[in-house]
Design brief:
The structure is a single chain. This protein has helices at residues 21-29, 81-94, 139-149, 158-164, 180-183, 193-202, 222-231, 268-272, 295-301, 312-318, 328-339, 343-358, 362-376; strands spanning 6-11, 34-39, 42-43, 50-56, 62-69, 100-104, 121-125, 152-155, 171-173, 209-213, 236-240, 257-261, 277-280, 306-308, 323-324. The protein is an alpha/beta fold. α10 links the parallel β14 and β15. α1 (21-29) crosses α13 and α9 packs across α12 (343-358). The longest helix has 16 residues, at 343-358. The protein starts with 5 loop residues before the first strand and ends in an 18-residue tail after the last helix. 40% of the residues are buried.
Length: 394
Amino acid sequence: MPQQPHLLVFSHLRWDFVFQRPQHLMTRLANDYRVIFIEEPQHDPAGPPRVESRRVGPGGAIEVLVPVTPVAAPGFDDAQLPLLLPLIERELAQREVRDYAVWMYTPMALPLIAGMQPRALVYDCMDELSAFKHAPAQLRQRESALMASADLVLCGGPALYAARHGQHPELHCLPSAVDAAHFAPPRTAPDDPLALRAQAVQGHIPRPRLGFFGVIDERMDLALVDAIAAARPDWQLAMVGPVVKISEADLPRRPNLHWLGMQRYELLPHLLAGWDVCLMPFALNESTRFISPTKTLEYLAGGKPVVSTPIRDVVGLYGDVVRIGNDAPEFVAACEELLQEDAASREYWHGSAAAVVAAASWDAAAGRVRDWLAAVLRPVAPGAPVIGASLRAA
């Protein structure tokens, strides 16, 4: 029986960071491909250049490779290339990778595949990375090169797809999806370890609790969060997630604002079950212009009402089941209405929200990806070389 082809994934997001689009898709594509997930390098000023490997996912189906170098430049910076190229070359040669496709989450890794001969090159454009804080100067140019050479380009939501429309013959919209079973209200005993951990994290916080989980960075409207907490000191805001690219000192501080840090993906449904309203207080700026937040569907799958700022994809995809607050007073008013909602109205909303969730599973999304990828996948060349000496810098 022939072995499955490899899928080499180059990612600016770490596997053990927030569990989101890359993890959901690769966990499912691992049924069809031998997935090797190559992260950005980590910095070790003292140790020798090396690659650390570990197995993740169901049955350890996915191998994560983490280059470690003494170079301080962040990410797949050009300064890393002289060390990264031979490191990755050696690792892939040891695994005898010759039948493979390449999947890119960041254009900055493009020089690492110069000389490779993949059966297909996929660019999963899940965000407008050039609009993010600290984006590399070369990003736009490198993305143009990746768009020109890719066989398949995916966009993370309708807004991003509309902005890229016509730029590639195999451009497809793949919006956020959800693992509904994971986020469904937990049916566990009070002494379940996850239930106990959730109690330890937020059990001291009174009700009503308005909650958020996700990355806390320049995309969050911290002034809005502060305004909500100030307007209703009787409400408790539970903010779950890692603080990235901004300082902890930037976070507003009030007695009813609780910054709970990053929590495990497995714990999120248990935290969600203890909230009364879910928040999406995104800023309206260049970094959020094209976002399509995965957490929208995760909140809905947990059966919790949601209030969001008017993010384009949230309004377009979920405007029928998510309340929108255009400014702080509207946001607070929407939360107030949801907290006072009667049982009949809430029951009607549950039916509508469940229908939205049922139409957006990661299993179905991965199925579409398999079909799109199969349509562009070239046959493996007879006598195709193992990745090795042919790998070179651009």
